[in-house]
Amino acid sequence: MPEAPTPYAAPAGAQVGHVHLQVTDLDRALAFYQGLLGFELQQRYGAQAAFLGAGGYHHHIGLNTWNSLNGAPAHTQGAAGLYHAALLYPTRADLGRVVGRLVAAGYPLRGAADHGVSEAVYLNDPDGNGLELYWDRPRAEWPRDAAGAIAMYTHPLDLGALVAAGETPG
Hints:
By secondary structure, the protein is α+β, with helices and mostly antiparallel strands. The protein contains three helices and nine strands, in the order E-H-E-E-E-E-H-E-E-E-E-H. The protein starts with 18 loop residues before the first strand and ends with a helix.
């Protein structure tokens, strides 16, 4: 039997850099990610691919139709694959603003939860890809157990209060 590799811990600064999704209709995907969620188009390759970012970043979201043009939507039931991609917003007000846009547009939400460490809203994009839109509370406010370990939970989230937080200037 081979020897176990030396334990390794990813560095504290490591993070998910971007998500790249196969979509069935690039214009429809852009209408959602750019038009509704507000990500900025950084580069487009005709009708085949587009890269969107926030704050001038080269891309947080890649979209392509290379193998999926006019294909079937993503499947989340009964098959392995991505459960959801999570988009982190810097503040509660920022999350409230985008959720307010979704609600105003009548876009269907799948759920919302307060996890103690974060508040999250769940939905599918137009191709059925699962998304979590969330913000993290400051680490000092994260719930902890008696031993000091993170003690996440799932409680109902007051969407009205979240959207109201996004309506406050600042």
